[in-house]
Every structure is written in C-alpha cells, then in structure tokens.
Design goal:
With 893 residues, the chain is α/β, with parallel strands linked by helices. The protein has 34 helices and 38 strands. The chain starts with 21 loop residues before the first helix and ends in a 5-residue tail after the last strand.
C-alpha cells in the first residue's frame, strides 16, 4: 500500500453526493466530497434509517459502495444487495492488521467512493481500548477525506471516554446526534465543517423527508436534557477527590431503590461531601438544601459542572426553587415548569483565571488599603481580565458545552458565592451577558469566552466594591461562579424571545388599592426578554400585576394606563447576533395568532388617530398590549401565586424570582424559573407610622404624595433636602446632567464631622433617579445616593417625564435592601402637592457643602431643615394608606 497523499487533490467538479434524504441534505447544506459522517446513537435502530437511503442513492447513481463488516450486530445491508461490495474485517486479529487492511481497500476503490462502516463502538470492545478506537479514526478519516469519499460511521453515545470521542469529533467533518423523544426521532448536528445556517446546530424533528428545526426552548430541553450526553465526561478533567467522590456517588445511587430519600450512612456521608464541595457552605442554605435536594440532584449538578468549586448563590437559588416545587406538587410542576439544562462553571475557574492572568495581586486588599486604592487596583485587574486566557482544559469543556447547546441562544449569568443569599442580593452589581450564539463554532466559542470575561470583570466594578463595603463584605471570600442557561423562548423570524418575562415577589410592598392583599404577591411583567423588567434603562414602562387583584392597575384611569403601556421589547436578533430593542408593533405580528389574541387587543380609537395623522399601517400600530384575558382565565395567575407562596413557605421568608412564560397555541403554559432568592423587603414596612391627627395647613406642606409610597412607614424630622430644580435641569445638556449626578454624590457623601451622625436627607428631582438616559431624570449611580433616607421623583419638567418606581428592578431592590423610602409626586393629581416656591425661598447651602460648586446653585438647591423653621421639618409616610407628606410643623407646636 502506498502512503496516504499529503494534500487532498481538488475534487472533480461533477462529483456530488447526497444522503438520499433531500430534507437532510438541505439541513446539512449538502454532503461534500471528503465528508466523514459520524452518527451518534443510543441504539443501532436509529443508524439503519440513515444508512438505507444513503445506500439506495449511491447505487442509483452508480457510485462505488463499500460496506465494511466487522461487528457482531445484525448486518446493516442485506447480503447480496446489488451494487454493494462487502469487505469483511477482523478486529480480533489486532489493530495494525485491521487498519492496514481497511486502508488497502480504500486505496483500491479510489476517489469518489461511498462507505458504510459497522458500529465503531465494537472496535473498542475487541481492542479493550478507547484510545485505539480514536487512533483508528484519526488514521482512516483523513485518508478517506483526501480521496473525496463519503463515509458513514455509527458510535454509541455515552459509551466512550473523551480519548475516543474527542479524537473522532475533532477529525470528522460531520457529527450528528440522533435522539428519540416521546415516540419521535430528532437529529441534532453537532459539527458540520465549513457550513453554516442560522438553525444548522439546532435539533431537527425528522418526519418523513422533512427535517424541521426545533427552535423553542421548551421542546429542545425536553429532547436533550433527558438523553445522556458526552459532556457527562467533564469529570475526567477533575481528577482526585472530585472524580472519586462523583464516581462513588454514582455507584451508591445505582444501588439505592428508586425514589428512596432516606440514605444509609455511607451514602449520607457522600451526600454531605457533595453538598459542601459544590453547592454551599452557608448554614441557612444548607438547611434548605438538605430538606429538598436528593443525592440524584447533587450528582446531576456535579455532572453539569465545568471546573471545580462552589456553583454560587444564583445557581443554588434556581435549583432549590425547582426542587421545592417538585417536592410539593410533582405532577403539577413537572407539567408547568420548563425543563432546565443549565451548566455551572465552578468558582475555582474564576480564581484560576485571576491567578494565571496576573489579576490576583491587584485584587488583593493589603493592610491599610483604602477604598480608593481598592478601586484603582480593581480597574487595573479588570483590564487584565478583559484579555485573559483560559486554561486549555477549560476551553475544551466550553466547546463541549457549546456543542451541546448548538445554536440555541444562551445567557452567562453571575453566580458569586455571596450572591442571592439571605441578606445579600447583589441586585445588578454583577453582569449577565446574552450570547445570540450564532456563527461558526470558533466564533461562538470566542463570543462565549468574552461573555465570561465580562462577568468576571464586573466583580471589580465600583458599584460592586461599594456594595460590599457598605455591607461589611470586603473581607469575605467572594469568588465568581457562573450559571450558563439556555435562553427561554422561540425563534420568530430572525428574533428569539419568550412571550413574557418578569420578576415576582411573594410579598407586595406596593398595595395601591384597598382590594390588594400584599401577602398574595406581585409581578412586574414585560413582553420579550426580561431585561426590561430588571433594568431601569429608558422611557419605557412595564406592567405591575397584583396577584390578589390582577386587573387592578396602579394608574387611575384607562388613558393613563394606556400611556404607561410597554412600547418596546428586548429580543435577540440572530441575524445581527445581538440583543436589540424592537417596537411592539414589530414584535406582535411574529406571534402565533392564538397567542397574540391572549396578549393584545385592537384599539379602534388609536387606529383612527394614526390614520388621521397620516401614520403608516394604522391597523398594525393599533394592536396594543392587553393582558386581561391572560390574567382572568387559565393557569397563569393561580400558578404564579401558588409558586411564590410555596417558595416563601419553604424559605420561611419572602422571596423574589425571575421567570419567563411561554404560551402554547392550544392554551397551555410553560414557566421557566430562572432565579429565586430571599426578598429583602421588610414586612413591617406595612405597619405605617401614623400621619398627623391634624393635617398641617396647605401653606406648610412642601411636598405631598398619594402614591406610589414604597418602603418603611416613617415619622421623622428632616435635616436636609437636596432639590434638583426641574426648569433649570431641563436646560442642561447631557454632559452637564452627568456632572450634576456626580455633584449629588459629593453632597450625600459629605459629613459634618467624624462623630456627628449623618443628616436625615431627602432627595427630590424631576423624572427618574438612577436612569441611564439623562433626558429622563438624574443619571446617578446607586452609590451616589445610598446615604439618603428618602427618594422623591417629580412628574414635572416635560410631559413625557413620569416617575416610575420600576418595581423589581435592580435599582428598586437596592432601595428596599437599605430601607430607603420612595415617593412619587404628581402635581395636579388629587392629594399631591409640590410647593416649588417654598423650596426655593430657603437659603441654598450648596457652596458651603461642596466648595467649587457655586456655578450649579440654580440647578441644585440644598436646604437645611433648620433654615426653614428649626426642628420643625418633618416627613410622615404611610405606605399602607399610600399617603406621604413633607411639611413644616405648625408654629409653636
């Protein structure tokens, strides 16, 4: 036999191949000369239906067809099949003779031949070696490739170690998994060399000649999560105690009766070790985990881990919540909950990344290090992390994980050791990054690693450092684990998104109507991705839903409610490979008609106004959000209410969650529970401080609100008011508004002396505090205002600038966590008052507090309570009655 050619000759221009299934050809974008096609199956019954049409097409076209017969299983091709040359091989005679004979036959057949191999898994049995199976493929595959052949191979999935599967996957041109789920057969391309389409790497339902991509997350997770995958071999990258403990747990689990919860002593010891190795060491969370996690749960977690270390608070919260629900009502929640198939990147990977890329020393907090020093060092460490390199074994596991997800969009979420625990929410302090997950495998890997770097670097952000400092956490071990989740939703056009997403609270801190029972919970709901539910970013609105009175809106009338409807939805644009915002009148037509009917309504008045104004497509633009059908019929409200109550009972503490909801055209519902944590609301906030028995005269009221009033009931003397003057602020350019935001930070950080208690401060401004759009309010960071006690938003400056508590956002969670009171003031509404002239009549103490700030005195007015009437400036707030008043006490009182 001559040596294999060093380079592949150019393929003959007329050399074309087919799978024999036109639908499969379209899915794989055709077979190309030289393709080695590996089909990974659980049963050879799934290999034969692909072999048969391939053989029929090859013989019909007169191509040389060789069947290598060497296994003990039933022949794939019947004896005497016309046009098929059967070559019998004998693996039991040794590797060298087997490979030599195989290559001889291939060389004799020459270019353009077609091949079918028996199941390769039997070679490992004969040779007692996965490594030799890999060696065979690494020799045969390139030889076949250079001769412009097409070869079919079968491999039993989850039967081989990475030394075989890695060699085969890296060498083959086409690798496809075959799955069965609920009586249906699916193909899932894992690798198709030098070909790409937006749905190529998604599972495809195989029905006749039709291979239809499965794009919705509900079906995809059901297909893949229930079928063992090669990524279960991640444990090989964790030798020593990790691999040993995992293998021991598997062995013990195999010997336990199905469904048994009470463990014998050895299994209990293994359970405790896994719990502390991977899940948590926090005593309160451990107690919850012991009640609801089984040994099977822990094995499943560790099998889906990349690296070692704890999986972090966000991952634990998500997993615990699901276990709690299934423990309470298994059948109900198995039907309603979307299956999760998340991966967990252990906290040790973060630490290793820091050390190997030179960031650890910069992150260290040496003795005498000030907060400013820490910020400066953190900025340098973040720069190193942005270009950091991952260890090769971690990169390999990232690629295996991405091969599993295919082209389904994913999100990389922070899950630090301290995050989402009792007392520490870290809301919005760390990043979460969506990956549209499009492009070549190499491009998808690079985008994923950039997302990981971004989340890692967010641990060094100023907001995160100040949060830890404020809560006394700087000296605690804070490592970043990661939660990698499949994005919930479906592909519609080029856009991927869930129907609905939001946050939920088991306790409603904003009871805007006497009909509302705060104990039945609250939702903040949006169309599309949940980013608009948790980030306070622009001039859009979300829907607040009391689960005790779901159609009762906070707005006083229908027109006001319509003005506060959501206008845009966040979606993943797979063509642009990016997260984008789209107008709802672009999104609604993408929904199935039956789903659209449950989420929208036609507004004839709006259609008429659009037509009269000359607007385009008045009918389409008059389709508006309308959730009444969803909220008054079906399972949505009862399911969310019961879900929150069940979780609060288990946690023995109010909880908040993040979730998505996808409606099925036939009327069903799927909820994806993404996150659960203790809600930092103080329930005693509902026990309001009583308002004055005799309300002060109108002339003494500086500000009054009839809602929203959120937070702890208060009756308190006020030392200082920081007032951003609406008319003057409206005249500023964008850059000056950022300067004003920093100035307010300087004011709130000012202390009259080390031993003087901080002043009780009320911040008052037009629009929204903490907005990222300066046209809508004051773009402060939370660390600029976290020393104030009360935050007031005024509905003044221009018509579109409306206060919005943004309940459920990271900003709101920060307010709740430090017990800051929030008031919205709507001048002109009954019960609201805004006495701007009285505020401006007081002396402005800005320049005294912040030397050099005199030029901003027209914009920022700092009022000391003693200047108005010594000891008589008071705030009374009653969140239950939704009433608040900032006023002067009557003279002589």
């Amino acid at each position: 036999m001559s040596a294999a050619p060093r380079h592949r000759p150019a393929a003959a221009p007329d050399l074309q191949f087919t799978t024999g299934l036109p639908g499969l050809d379209r899915t794989l974008l055709g077979l190309r000369p030289g393709d080695n096609v590996v089909l990974q199956v659980n049963d050879l019954a799934d290999y034969r239906p692909l072999v048969t049409p391939f053989i029929a097409a090859a013989t019909r076209e007169g191509k040389p067809l060789i069947y290598f017969r060497f296994a003990r299983h039933r022949p794939l091709i019947p004896t005497g099949h016309p046009g098929v040359q059967v070559r019998h091989l004998h693996p039991e005679r040794g590797f060298e003779r087997f490979i030599t004979t195989t290559l001889d036959h291939i060389e004799v057949a020459g270019r353009g031949a077609c091949y079918v191999f028996d199941c390769l898994s039997e070679l490992a049995v004969d040779w007692y070696s996965d490594r030799m199976l890999g060696n065979f493929f690494m020799l045969a595959c390139p030889f076949l490739y250079r001769l412009d052949t097409i070869a079919y191979f079968a491999l039993l999935r989850n039967h081989h170690s990475p030394v075989a599967t890695d060699a085969i996957t890296s060498t083959a041109q086409v690798v496809v998994d075959i799955h069965r789920h609920e009586g249906r057969r699916y193909i899932h391309p894992l690798k198709v060399d030098q070909r790409h389409s937006p749905t190529l790497y998604m599972p495809h339902l195989w029905e006749g000649d039709d291979f239809r991509p499965v794009t919705d997350s509900t079906t995809t997770t059901r297909i893949l999560a229930g079928d063992p995958q090669t990524w279960l071999q991640f444990a090989i990258h964790r030798p020593g105690p990790w691999a040993e403990t995992l293998q021991r747990a598997r062995d013990l689990l195999a010997g336990l009766p199905a469904g048994r919860r009470r463990l014998p002593p050895e299994a209990r010891a293994c359970y405790e070790r896994l719990l502390r190795m991977a899940v948590t060491r926090d005593d309160r969370v451990l107690a919850l985990a012991r009640r609801h996690f089984t040994l099977r749960n822990l094995v499943d977690i560790v099998q889906r881990m990349i690296g070692t270390g704890l999986i972090g608070g966000k991952s634990v919260g998500m997993l615990l919540a699901r276990a709690i629900l299934r423990h309470a009502e298994p059948r109900r929640w198995d039907r309603l909950l979307e299956t999760h198939d998340s991966f967990f990147i252990g906290a040790d990977v973060f630490y290793t990344f820091l050390v190997q890329n030179g960031g650890w020393w910069l992150r260290r907090r040496p003795r005498g290090c000030t907060l400013d020093d820490l910020e400066a060092h953190a900025a340098q460490a973040a720069e190193k992390m942005a270009g950091g390199v991952f260890p090769e074994d971690i990169r390999h596991q990232f690629m295996e994980m991405l091969r599993y997800f295919g082209q389904s969009p994913i999100i990389v979420r922070s899950s630090s050791l301290l995050e989402d625990n009792y007392g520490n929410a870290f809301s919005g302090k760390y990043e979460s990054v969506f990956c549209a997950n499009q492009g070549t495998p190499e491009q998808r890997l690079e985008a994923f690693m950039n997302a990981v770097r971004t989340v890692y670097a967010s641990t060094l952000r100023r907001e995160a450092i100040h949060y830890r400092a404020r809560r006394g956490l700087l000296d605690l071990d804070e490592q970043m684990a990661l939660l990698v989740q499949r994005v919930s939703g479906d592909l519609r056009g080029n856009c991927f998104f869930p129907h609905l997403a939001g946050v939920g609270f088991s306790f409603n801190p904003y009871a805007w109507s006497p009909e509302i029972n705060p104990r039945q919970g609250l939702l903040r709901l949006v169309f599309g991705l949940g980013t608009r539910a948790v980030d306070r970013t622009d001039d859009d609105y979300t829907r607040l839903i009391s689960l005790s009175a779901p159609t009762r809106r906070p707005e006083p009338n229908r027109d006001d409610a319509r003005r506060h409807d959501q206008r845009r939805a966040d979606v993943l644009d797979l063509a642009a490979n990016a997260l984008v915002a789209k107008e709802l009148d672009e999104v609604f037509p993408l929904l199935p008609p039956a789903v659209r009917a449950r989420l929208t309504a036609y507004d004839a008045d709006l259609a008429r106004r659009v037509a009269e104004s000359g607007g385009r497509s008045p009918a389409a633009r008059a389709v508006v959000p309308d959730l009444d059908a969803l909220l008054t019929a079906g399972e949505f409200v009862p399911a969310l209410r019961d879900l929150l109550r069940t979780l609060e009972d288990a946690y023995q503490h109010p909880v908040d969650i993040e979730f998505t909801a996808n409606l099925q055209p036939a009327g069903g519902l799927r909820i994806n529970l993404l996150q659960c944590r203790p809600f930092q609301v103080r329930i005693q906030a509902a026990a309001a401080a009583p308002l004055l028995h005799r309300p002060p005269p109108a002339r003494d009221i500086l500000l009054a609100s009839r809602g929203p009033v959120i937070g702890q009931g208060l009756a308190n003397a006020v030392d200082r008011i920081v007032f951003v003057v609406p008319a003057e602020y409206a005249r500023l350019g964008t850059q000056d508004r950022y300067t004003v935001a920093r100035l307010i930070g300087d004011i709130t950080r000012h202390r009259p002396g080390r031993h003087t208690p901080p002043p009780f401060t009320v911040l008052v401004a037009p629009g929204r505090w903490g907005t990222q759009s300066p046209s809508l309010g004051v773009p402060v960071s939370f660390s600029d205002i976290n020393r104030a006690q009360v935050l007031v938003e005024l509905a003044v400056m221009h018509a579109g600038l409306v206060p919005d508590i943004s309940l459920g956002t990271h900003f709101f969670n920060d307010l709740v966590e430090i017990n800051m009171l929030y008031l919205g003031v709507f001048p002109g509404r009954a019960g609201n008052r805004y006495a701007e002239n009285r505020l401006l009549a007081a002396p402005n103490r800005l320049a005294k507090l912040v030397p050099g700030a005199k030029r901003w005195e027209k914009v920022v007015h700092v009022i000391e309570g003693r200047d108005l009437r010594p000891g008589s400036l008071f705030l009374h707030a009653d969140p239950v009655a939704q009433r608040a008043s900032l006023h002067l006490a009557p003279a002589g009182s």
